[in-house]
Amino acid sequence: GGGSFSLQAPSSSANNRVFTIPDEADATLLTSNTSTGKILQVLQTVKTDTASVSSNNFGDLSGMTAPAITTTGSNKVLIRLFVQWGTEAGHAISFRLVKSTGGSVTVLPIKGDTAGSRDSLIFGGLASNAPWEVNPASMEYLDSPGAGTHTYKLQWAVPSGATTAYFNRSFRDSDQAGEARTPSVITVMEVAA
Description:
By secondary structure, the chain is an all-beta fold. It contains no helices and 12 strands. Strand 6 and strand 7 (104-107) form a beta hairpin. The two termini are 26 Å apart.
């Protein structure tokens, strides 16, 4: 179509290179200016303070909402989460990831399968035996939200409603060396389709 194309040999005769075109199908050569598959923007929220929950109804986890991300066309959003929490021995905690677009909130399908009375969650379940433990977890999920402005956030609850669970700290949280206060992170990235 009117432009020019050239292949240049290496500048030194000692550097021989072979360029082979596969005999399989037609293709378009991607260049450094091609957007396909590229990360177009990265937004992140880091939560270093603590929070607590004692309700058995899901609610937003304060400070674990990613900055609103605006996507175009059929671009996707890669969500990465790293969270840490503490619970009382023998009790459970529940987490889920939701998306808000144009005022409509939907629960994302990144969770375990349903099985009987078991909870289907992104993170959580019954606590370990030690109330001084900080439980870490991480995940990532590639969402196809469509064009628009989207806000991703973490919600949590205590299924029994009979205890309090904590974020970025252990349940015991004694004021002594060895007890930890920890950070959690939510990151969203627009990925070119």
